[in-house]
Write a structure and sequence with these properties.
Layout lengths: L6 E2 L5 E2 L8 H17 L3 E6 L9 E14 L6 H4 L7 E11 L8 H19 L4 E6 L2 H9 L3 E6 L2 E7 H8 L2
Parallel strand pairs: 2-4, 5-6
Antiparallel strand pairs: 1-3, 3-4, 4-5, 6-8, 7-8
Helix pairs in contact: 3-5
Coenzyme A binds next to strand 5, helix 3 and helix 4.
Amino acid sequence: MWATEFVELDKSHHNRTSFDCGESELNTFLQTQALRHMQTGISRTMVLSGIHPLPDQKLPVCAFYSIAPSAISRETLPKNLAKKLPRYPIPIFLLAQLGVHREYHGQGLGKICLIHALRYLWQVNAHMRAYAIVVDCLTKAAENFYRKYGFEILCEHNGRTRMFLPMRMVGELFDE
Ligand SMILES: CC(C)(COP(=O)(O)OP(=O)(O)OC[C@H]1O[C@@H](n2cnc3c(N)ncnc32)[C@H](O)[C@@H]1OP(=O)(O)O)[C@@H](O)C(=O)NCCC(=O)NCCS
C-alpha cells in the first residue's frame, strides 16, 4: 500500500536508504543527491511514500520523480518542428529522474508517477512556458516505458536516449 499524495522529499519523514528501483544511479540520486539539489535550487523531488513506518519511524519511498527546468537547441528537434522555433535555446522541463521501488514494479505506480509529473508540469506551464518535457533514458526498458505514453526519440545525449513529449500534447491530456 502507498500514500494517496505525492509530497516533496523530506529527510525527517522519508527513509531514503531502503529505496531500490533496480538502477543504482537512480537509487544513489535519491539517497545522496536529491535533497542537496533541492536545497541548491536546481531540481525538485517528489515522492510517494508507503504508509507503514520502518523501524526508524520513517516512511519508505515507493516511487519518486525529479524535475528541473532546462533548455535544448532546436537542431536536436525533428526538422518539421525545428523550423518553427528560434535559434536560441528552447526552454523545456526535464523529467530528470523517475523510479519505482522494485517491490512495487508492475502495479501501475510508474504510470501514476509519470501522470503526476506530467500534470504538475502542465500546471507550471500555465505560469512559465516550456516547449516540451524531456527525459534521458538509462535503459531500453525505460525507453519502452516512456514510448507507451507518447514520448518520441529526440537524440543521443551523454550516452542516453533523449526522448520528448511536446507540451501541447500534455495539454491535450489534461485540458477539458
Ligand atoms: C520503468 C519503471 C518506472 C516502471 O514502473 P512500474 O511501476 O513497473 O510500471 P507500471 O506498472 O506503472 O506500468 C505502466 C505501463 O508501462 C508498462 N511498462 C512497465 N515497464 C515497462 C518496460 N520496462 N517496458 C515496456 N513497458 C513497460 C507496463 O506494462 C504498463 O502498461 P499497461 O498499463 O499497458 O499494462 C520501473 O520499472 C523502474 O523504476 N525502473 C527502474 C528505473 C528506471 O528505469 N526509470 C526510468 C527513468 S530513466
